[in-house]
Design goal:
The complex is a heterodimer. By secondary structure, chain A is of the alpha+beta class. Chain A has three helices and seven strands; from the N terminus they run αααβββββββ. Chain A has a four-stranded antiparallel beta sheet with strand order 3-2-5-6, with no helix packed on it. Chain A has a three-stranded mixed beta sheet with strand order 4-1-7, with no helix packed on it. Chain B contains six helices and 55 strands.
């Protein structure tokens, strides 16, 4: 088989994927799921060039307040990060697994629920 | 003040002197006037001189030895030493002044020592016979030890000026004043009732049922130890600088106060019960338990007396404008009266529910009072009617309060006699582990009548009344409060934290790089968990890495290591141990790090086959269902930071750089996509086979289609069986990849439709 023809499925898939990523406001998830479901070999997969393959997201928590321990928990209670603020401000960096969207932060006697965004500010 | 008090006690004793003190004008069988030398009064029981009274008058200077006789001192005596045994006794009459230089020798066979005079010891005093003091005893040179055979009966003034009072006596009554410049220790098995004053300059230890009917003070720490109790009887008080409570504080009668000006540490088994208030001015650690009328307040009025020189007056109330009040409707209003930070991650909240007294259809009687609180955050709810006759039937601790209450929390049910024309005030006190928004429902009839408070409302009251946590106890003084210190007795350690916090993470590799593999991602399946040990300044003392080889579907003998991404980590402050080196593939330095690396690099092991036995069947280990299972191998790496201790941010564990060393070739490193090779990687492999790296541009370990050779999962990964492409086992993996991580970011979880279990090991 001609080399160009042999690579044709991969090229088509790559073009489809690129089109999907570029036009992600389509009924994306369903379309993508259907498209991905047809892939039976990872050699046919094409990952966007900018894809970093990370399964966690980096979070930075900026805390300002009195002396006290700060604890960041996942919804199931597992402890994602912890630090002692000696009073004043403290910056705490940690990673949150991709499947976790909500965090619970205990500090200065108050427990707060926040979204797991890249930068979280907490003043007490 | 103490001098004034002592004077009062002496005056009191003087009254007793007038009525009880013997003298040397009568009753003396023989009198020694101005005697010097050794006065030996040794008799056998049937001797003519036995059981008689021998009086000392004028000036005495010498030693005294007594057996089967009584000595009565009426003059000024300087006693170099004395021995009293076998039915002997000593009386020191009113007006006598006795100085004893060596006080040993009050033996258990001695009947008693009674003092109406001025008795001074220049060393310690440890009588084994009963001691009755009606005037003044001063112990200058050591401790006063009341041994178990000896009764302690003090109606005067006992001063231990340079020592402790150690009480082992089964008969203890202090009706005068007792002062010890150091400690007072009421030891196990003894008895003590205080009817006047007992004061220690330092610590006060209670190991018995100590019955305090008047005034006691500890200058420093008060220990109420396990199984023991402090009974405060009818306007009695005890005060201390600090309290360590393992026992019980019991109130009897009314208006008793235990005042603690500094921190309180309440351990399990401690409690307050009966009519006693705990006026605790400092930080509180642990949980306080109150019952039968006991409570935390500073409201009593205890007048001063000859025994209690300080008395007790109520603390100044918090400024009235600290209250935050909201209307419930129906004549009810709710106020936050106080919010006290207990310095142990708990808060004591006091609410006031007040009814105006209005009546009619819009002002119905309260049927129940509900307080919103998150499940698991509240405890110790109590009701106190301070005005009117309001009552409740039962306390429902929830958290679900029934259909009529639109929130979770706790509820006082079947309430009556407040509302519906009946004015009244009820105070509700409870403990929370964290401040939170709370609704208060004063339900009357069908009206929920809810007042809503925010966290800011509670903080406002706390800040206004200055009931924030001032200074929490920190026993090892490491800047890490005891309440949160996992190592409260170790000033170098405060807490541990693990990465990942969700348990373990997994690294999954393909090992044919630079050629593409079969994408089963099981050529190495390795779980890891880091646990860091930190001090109170968030500096990492040590880092423990636990690595578990679960599987390797590989014919190659591969190793594994990792590098810290932080370029500042050159290893000069690290000491690494635990590496499993089974070949000469790598060279480690004296600090346990790999030689030749500009960034700190740890080799975990050099050959998976040396770590786990091949079962004799199949490719590798634990990737084929048909092959015998081999127990995973655990390797523990410990990294101690000897100086310049890093923070967790410095360590940057989420971005640590793990790599597989393939085919016993040190230069053939396989990293996660986008991660840099180490200094010892052979860069000539890049660009060969299916590799499409551009190292200079930061594009590494990916194919032309951006596929990787390694995956990093934030959970324990369920990996495909041998030669099973991951896309056919984890059914959302392809969608995740194709979407650039946007869709199915949780593809690795065990969710409906996410995986084909038959293709997972």
């Amino acid at each position: 088989m001609n080399e160009n023809y042999r690579n044709m499925p991969r090229l088509i898939l790559a073009l489809c994927t690129a089109a999907f990523v570029l036009h992600s406001c389509a009924p994306e998830k369903e379309a993508l799921t259907a498209q991905a479901a047809s892939v039976k070999d990872s050699k046919e997969l094409y990952a966007p060039a900018a894809f970093d393959w990370k399964t966690t997201k980096d979070c930075t928590l900026e805390v300002r307040g009195p002396k006290g321990m700060i604890e960041v928990n996942a919804p199931d209670g597992s402890l994602l990060a912890k630090a002692m603020n000696q009073g004043g401000s403290l910056e705490l960096q940690f990673a949150v697994p991709n499947h976790i969207q909500d965090l619970s932060i205990a500090y200065a006697g108050v427990r707060s629920s926040v979204k797991a965004t890249s930068r979280i500010k907490l003043d007490r | 003040m103490r001098t004034l008090f002592a004077l009062s006690a002496v005056l009191f004793a003087a009254l007793l002197n007038a009525t009880n003190s013997p003298d040397c004008s009568s009753g003396c069988y023989q009198t020694y006037n101005n005697y010097s030398g050794t006065l030996q009064l040794h008799f056998n029981p049937n001797d003519a001189g036995a059981n008689k009274t021998y009086c000392i008058t004028g000036t005495f200077n010498g030693s005294i030895e007594v057996r089967n006789a009584k000595v009565r001192i009426c003059g000024n005596a300087t006693v170099s030493s004395w021995t009293f045994d076998q039915n002997s006794s000593l009386e020191i009459a009113s007006g006598a002044v006795v100085v004893v230089n060596n006080s040993g020798g009050i033996n258990s066979s001695c009947d008693f020592v009674k003092n109406w005079g001025d008795l001074t010891f220049n060393n310690g005093f440890s009588p084994n016979a009963d001691l009755y003091n009606y005037s003044s005893i001063t112990v200058n040179g050591g401790d006063l030890n009341m041994n178990s055979q000896a009764k302690y009966q003090n109606f005067g003034d006992v001063q231990v000026t340079n020592g402790s009072y150690n009480h082992n006596s089964t008969g203890g009554l202090n009706s005068g004043s007792l002062y010890a410049s150091k400690d007072i220790k009421l030891n196990g098995g003894s008895e003590m009732t205080n009817e006047c004053s007992m004061v220690s300059g330092k610590e006060f230890h209670i190991n018995i049922a100590f019955n305090n009917k008047e005034y006691a003070k500890s200058g420093e720490k008060l220990y109420i130890n396990g199984g023991s109790s402090l009974k405060l009887d009818n306007q009695a008080m005890m005060t201390a600088a600090e309290l360590i409570l393992n026992g019980t504080v019991k109130g009897i009668g009314s208006s008793n106060t235990l005042e603690v000006t500094g921190p309180t540490l309440a351990n399990g088994g401690s409690s307050f019960t009966g009519p006693v208030e705990a006026c605790l001015g400092g930080a509180i650690s642990g949980t306080l338990s109150f019952s039968n009328g006991a409570g935390q307040s500073c409201a009593n009025t205890i007048p001063t007396s000859s025994c209690n020189p300080v008395g007790f007056a109520p603390a100044s109330p918090a400024p009235s404008n600290c209250d935050v009040t909201k209307s419930n409707g129906g004549g009810f209003s709710t106020s936050i009266v106080s919010v006290v930070d207990n310095c142990d991650n708990t808060f004591t909240i006091k609410l006031k529910l007040e009814h105006s007294g209005c009546g009619g259809p819009s002002c119905k009687e309260l049927s129940h009072l509900s307080i919103e609180a998150l499940p698991g955050t509240y405890s110790a709810a109590s009701w106190n009617t301070t005005s009117g006759t309001a009552t409740y039937g039962s306390l429902d601790n929830g958290p679900n309060l029934g259909a009529s209450t639109p929130f979770q929390g706790f509820k006082f049910d079947n309430t009556s006699k407040i509302g519906g024309g009946k004015a009244g005030i009820v105070e509700i006190t409870y403990t929370l582990t964290s401040l939170q928004d709370q609704k208060i429902s004063a339900k009357a009839g069908t009206n929920a009548q809810i007042a809503s408070f925010t966290v800011a409302d509670f903080q406002s009251v706390m800040n206004c009344a200055n009931t924030v946590c001032a200074q929490a106890p920190d026993g090892d003084n490491d800047g890490c409060e005891d309440a949160v210190d996992q190592y409260p007795n170790d000033p170098t350690r405060c807490y541990d934290v693990s990465y990942p916090g969700t348990g373990v993470a997994t690294l999954a590799f393909e090992d044919l790089w630079p050629a593409a593999g079969d994408y089963d991602f099981n050529d190495l399946v390795l779980d890891y968990l880091f646990t860091a040990e930190l001090n109170g300044s968030n500096e990492v003392n040590a880092l423990d890495g636990t690595f578990v080889i679960r599987a390797f579907g590989a014919g190659f003998h591969n190793g594994f290591g990792f590098q810290f991404s932080n370029p500042a980590f050159d290893g000069s402050n690290m000491q690494v141990s635990g590496s499993e080196i089974s070949s000469a593939l790598v060279s480690l330095g004296a600090n346990g790090l790999e030689i030749g690396q500009s960034k700190a690099t740890v080799i975990v092991y050099t050959d998976a086959y040396a770590q786990m036995r091949h079962p004799g069947v199949g490719i590798g280990v634990n990737t084929e269902i048909s092959a015998p299972y081999v127990q995973p191998d655990t390797i523990k790496i410990r990294i101690v930071f000897t100086s310049n201790k890093p923070s967790m941010t410095d360590l940057d564990l989420p971005n640590f750089n793990p790599f597989l060393i393939a085919k016993e070739d040190r230069g053939r490193e396989i990293h996660l996509p986008g991660y840099a090779p180490t200094d010892l990687a052979n860069l000539s492999y890049f660009g060969l086979g299916d590799d499409d790296s551009n190292v200079g541009a930061g594009r590494t370990y990916v194919t032309e289609t951006n596929m990787p050779w390694a995956l990093h999962l934030p959970v324990r990964f369920d990996y495909p069986t041998e030669k099973t492409d991951i896309v056919t086992a984890h059914l959302k993996f392809a969608a995740w990849v194709m979407s650039g991580g946007v869709s199915f970011a949780d593809w690795y979880l065990d969710m409906p439709g996410y995986r084909d279990d038959s293709k997972l090991y």
